[in-house]
Design goal:
This protein is of the alpha+beta class. The chain has one domain. 31% of the residues lie in helices and 30% in strands. It contains 4 helices and 8 strands; from the N terminus they run E-H-E-E-E-E-H-E-H-E-E-H. An 8-stranded antiparallel beta sheet has the order 2-3-4-5-1-6-8-7, covered by helices on one side. The mean pLDDT is 95.
Length: 188
């Protein structure tokens, strides 16, 4: 199984206190300063008017970053668009690391804190990874090995969304508290 086009979402603690409007300027500054190495940042899109929608999106050539409210759960969504070489573990590491670094940068702002103990992984390619039991059985060993490194063996649960019309999506819920810096360290 070839996992490409990975989406990683880390959720915001206390989302009701977050004003998304201020992040239009934040993401525009990221473009001007090109704060993300090895990625070309292009534009910002405002979808705050869409209920439970994509929120504020920083559009890049390789990936998009957004403060996304899909499922009525506000979080930082990293959406890798460009294919990556390497193993599935390499691609998972790249996507989770990019999401953690962006969440850490955004979390430096007052009033915005991300939970490291929960994330959502989706494969944004229904051809490569249809949401089937076969895909889950093929992906589960590599996902488990990766999240063993990130959280520690047996310290998390993986739960696949079973609806076949959805993208292949897995919720990851860890036991205990995890800060973003500690998770980045675990990836090293």
């Amino acid at each position: 199984m070839d996992l490409q086009h990975l989406n990683i979402k880390f959720f915001v603690d206390q989302p009701e206190t977050v004003d998304l409007e201020s992040f239009l300027a934040v993401f525009n500054a990221w473009i001007q300063e090109q704060v993300i190495a090895d990625e070309l940042l292009i534009d910002v899109a405002d979808y705050r008017h869409v209920w439970a929608g994509p929120g504020v999106i920083l559009i890049g050539h390789e990936a998009n970053y957004s403060l996304d409210n899909a499922g009525n759960r506000l979080g930082l969504l990293y959406n890798r668009k460009a294919p990556l070489t390497g193993s599935n573990t390499d691609r998972l590491r790249q996507a989770v690391r990019a999401a953690l670094l962006a969440a850490e940068r955004l979390g430096a702002r007052p009033g915005l804190k991300f939970s490291g103990g929960e994330l959502q992984l989706a494969v944004n390619d229904r051809l490569l990874a249809p949401n089937t039991d076969e895909t889950w059985q093929a992906a589960q060993p590599e996902l488990s090995a990766f999240f063993d490194q990130l959280y520690g063996p047996g310290r998390y649960r993986l739960a696949r969304h079973p609806e076949p019309r959805e993208r292949f999506t897995v919720d990851v819920k860890a036991e205990g508290q995890y800060d973003l810096a500690g998770l980045l360290s675990n990836l090293s």
